[in-house]
Design a protein that fits this description.
Number of strands: 12
Number of helices: 13
CATH superfamily of the largest domain: Histidine kinase-like ATPase, C-terminal domain
Order of helices and strands: EHEHEHEHEHHHHEHHEEHEEHHEE
Helix content: 40-55%
CATH architecture of the largest domain: 2-Layer Sandwich
Oligomer: single chain
Strand order of the largest sheet: 2-1-3-4-5
């Protein structure tokens, strides 16, 4: 079912669109002003955005522009009772799918949505074709070893998928910054987190540019507690926007923090993927609590990291397919996150387990051998 966000300050219009579209194949949310629309746009993934041009705080074109920065595939539709040449030109610049003047009929709205979604599907198909062509050109122009083609085809989409984590951080920090424009200290904090996220994206891009090359993986001795805290810091703003609280505990049988040996970048991907999945799993849940636990066994040979949520849980029939590449239950998911996580964990001599109860939540447990002094 496609999700639609309606941003309009007229109660009658919000009610009409909510009732008229909800009766079909759409899940509809409404906001009565621009900043309310921006907040809702940061909390959910929407397929269509219907925005009134004239809103009490910021205009609908600004709402469209800001939401599209983090949701470039959303289909924007503008409705207005006060159209002008200037707003029409701006709508064209923003690639607005349709520009409707009031009074609008439900049929015209439905047609605009249908055409917008069809155009988006065509764009996606074209982009997939271009990506395949780029990969083929890449393979022709660069000398690679036997089996490199298969490796590139597998690795490229995984690296692209990993960019989503820092993008979520950038989106959450930017939205909170917008709501705290008069607080200089808060603005600096949000900008610092955005800069850190862009550094992560730069690191991932280097991996994309080095596809097909022999590269050395740097193995370090890593403090597990520090590593997880660093990963959590990336999502603090997103958690604040989504109303997610944090509960953490550490059960240690040793006198110091546990250390593991591995690639910092790779292990960050493990924890960030699982943390983000847990946050997303709690959308629309009354209780939103992220649980993080670090536990060492009695002989201090293994450390287990528990990442749990209070989401809707995973159905039993899905459990066996969780780590299968390209399997996903998310509407906009790639099905790569958990398969990447499992692969990285096993390369670090670790194990991953999952426990879930429908209606109560899910907990992933990752265990690694501890590196002693």
């Amino acid at each position: 079912m496609n999700r639609i966000l309606v941003v309009d300050d007229e109660p009658s219009m919000r009610k009409a669109l909510s009732m008229g579209l909800s009766s079909g194949d759409y899940d509809v949310d409404v906001a009565r002003d621009g900043y309310g629309g921006l907040l809702m746009g940061s909390l959910k993934n929407y397929d269509v955005l219907i925005a009134d041009l004239c809103l009490p705080d910021i205009d609908g074109l600004q709402v469209i522009e800001k939401i599209r920065r983090t949701a470039p595939e959303i289909v924007p539709i503008m409705i207005t009772g006060k159209g002008s040449m200037k707003s029409s030109i701006e709508a064209i610049r923003l690639d607005v799918s349709d520009y409707l003047e009031k009074p609008v009929s439900m049929e015209s709205i439905r047609n605009a949505i249908k055409l917008g979604l069809e155009k988006r599907a065509l764009k996606r198909k074209t982009m997939r074709k271009k990506l395949q062509e780029m990969l083929e050109i890449y393979m022709e122009e660069r000398p690679v070893n036997d089996g490199a083609s298969e490796q590139l085809a597998e690795t490229l989409p995984r690296l692209v998928h990993q960019i989503n984590n820092p993008l979520q951080c950038i989106s959450g920090s930017a939205e909170l910054a917008m709501l705290n424009l008069n607080d200089e200290i808060a603005i600096k904090k949000f900008i610092t987190r955005i800069i850190k996220a862009t550094v992560k994206i730069s690191s991932i891009n280097k991996g994309i540019m080095n596809l097909g090359k022999e590269t050395d993986v740097k193995i370090e001795k890593l403090n597990v507690r520090d590593l997880i805290e660093e990963c959590l810091s990336m999502f603090k703003d997103l958690m604040a926007l989504k109303g997610v609280s944090l509960a953490s505990e550490a059960i240690s049988h040793g006198s110091s923090d546990p250390f593991v040996a591995g690639s910092r970048f790779a292990l960050e991907q493990v924890f960030k993927n699982l943390i983000l999945n847990a946050i997303d799993a709690m959308d629309d849940r009354p209780e939103r609590r992220l649980r993080i636990g670090i536990e060492t066994d009695k002989d201090v040979s293994t450390v287990a990291i528990h990442i749990g949520d209070t989401g809707s849980g995973i159905p039993e029939e899905v459990m066996n397919s969780l780590f299968t590449p390209y399997f996903t239950t998310k509407k906009h998911g790639t099905g790569l996150g958990l398969s990447v996580v499992k692969s990285i964990v096993e390369r670090h001599s670790g194990k991953i387990q999952v426990e879930s109860r429908v209606g109560a939540g899910t907990t992933f447990t990752i265990s690694f051998p501890i590196v002693r002094e």
